Amino acid sequence: MPRRSSDAEAQGHQIPLIGATSGTANTQSAEEATPYERIKAMILSNAIPPDTKLTIDQLARDLGVSQTPIREALQRLEGDRLVVSKKPRGIWTTPLLDGRELMHLMEVRLLMEPWAVSVVSTDRAVNPGRKMLAEIERFAHLPNGRHEGYELASHDVAFHDMIFDAVGNGFLHDAFRHLHAHLHLFRLYPADLDGTHTIEEHRAIAEAVHRADPEAAAEAMRHHIFEAMDRFSSGLSTPGGHGRFHDVRTGVLRHPE
Ligand SMILES: [Zn+2]
């Protein structure tokens, strides 16, 4: 069932907890962040590059902790598909998505998210439109953090999570979380570093939800997923995947005209 993060916000050096499941983007001070969160942040920011061998001993020294919490952190990161054990060769960060994986991820999102957003637009009791608009305003008016990449990812996690939270279907919400979509997408070059396009597309979705227009909300969500797919494709690990997206556009999931 959906779980809510209770991580407190703290001042000082901020490490956004990408993948946190609260209604707003969460941050935490470096001192309070667990080894799991700190290593995850290093992988997502490419401070540890994709397809790189990790040494437990080195990580323990770098983070100033013993090996046990590092081992526990790596187990969780394996669940996130950010690291992989290659026996007998040790633990490696996973490579970036390739074109085919990006397309598959977006196909699943196209199956889930337009439906989810239309459901919450038809149920006035759970309509999250106001909350979604408030999250967009929060992000749009960040003093300078928007350009730090992570802020965009944290905003995107918070925004999409609000929709699944409002649907209230625990199976669907878990399925979305298990995609770890944001963890993988935001390791690619997002091609929208200041979030301008994301804000525009999110606003179209949130306004349609707020005025309880399920068709417009679903179309705006489809548009956002296709546009995001194009943006993230510029960061693909293998060139040439881009042409495959045409298959999605002309298929049953159809691109809005
Ligand atoms: Zn989004």
Structure description:
With 257 residues, this protein is mainly alpha-helical. It folds into two domains: 14-49 and 51-93, Winged helix-like DNA-binding domain superfamily/Winged helix DNA-binding domain (Arc Repressor Mutant, subunit A), CATH 1.10.10.10; 99-250, GntR ligand-binding domain-like (Four Helix Bundle (Hemerythrin (Met), subunit A), Up-down Bundle). Helix content is 55%, strand content 5%. The protein has helices at residues 35-44, 56-63, 67-79, 99-122, 129-140, 150-167, 170-179, 181-185, 196-210, 214-233, 245-250; strands at residues 14-16, 27-29, 53-54, 83-85, 91-93. The chain has a three-stranded antiparallel beta sheet. Strands 1-2 form a two-stranded antiparallel sheet. Helix 4 packs across helix 6 (150-167), helix 4 (99-122) packs parallel to helix 9 and helix 9 (196-210) runs antiparallel to helix 10. The chain is elongated and about 55 Å long. The model is unreliable at 1-17 and 19-28 (pLDDT under 50). Zinc ion is lined by residues 156, 159-160, 198, 202, 224. Zinc ion binds next to helix 6 and helix 9.
